[in-house]
Amino acid sequence: MADQTTAQPPRGERLPARAVERFRARAAAHQQEDANRQESLFLRFCDWVSTVMGEPPNIIFWLVLVVGWTLIFASGLVGANSNFLPSWFTGTAYNFPLNLLTTVAELFIGFLVAAAANRSQRVLSTIIDGIRTVLDQVEQGVEAQKGLIQQNIDLTTEVQKLAAEVHAHILGTANDPPAG
Hints:
This protein is mainly α. It has one domain. It has helices at 2-7, 11-36, 41-53, 56-74, 87-90, 99-175.
């Protein structure tokens, strides 16, 4: 039974090292996978669009565009029945009557979802960076503890040697014949 406990380190010491190794291996694998992936122009464009969708300048741009388009017709600057656009584009047979409302709702719901996704990604990146930092600190702490344990072992060995010398010295003086 004693051989099993001395052959294996305590469970608490083994798990953090394995967790750190596993985390670093997975992170390295993901980084390598990202580096090896040859993304198409389409995927890079999609990533850019999804990043920009939730940003305030994009939301403001579309808000100004929709409000401006509405004001052009609401102010009478362009008549509702004017034909500066093709009839298939402006005709009521092609467009749903609530097209403007659904477009606005669709745009802003999309913007809000994209903004939420961007926030989630930033928070997740911060959490992952925090986990990496904590794991590095834990690893440094483990290394410091190993050093302190070794220092303690060295001091204990030194104390044991000194105690043996003191013991030998005391026994040596007790066996000496009295002077005189």
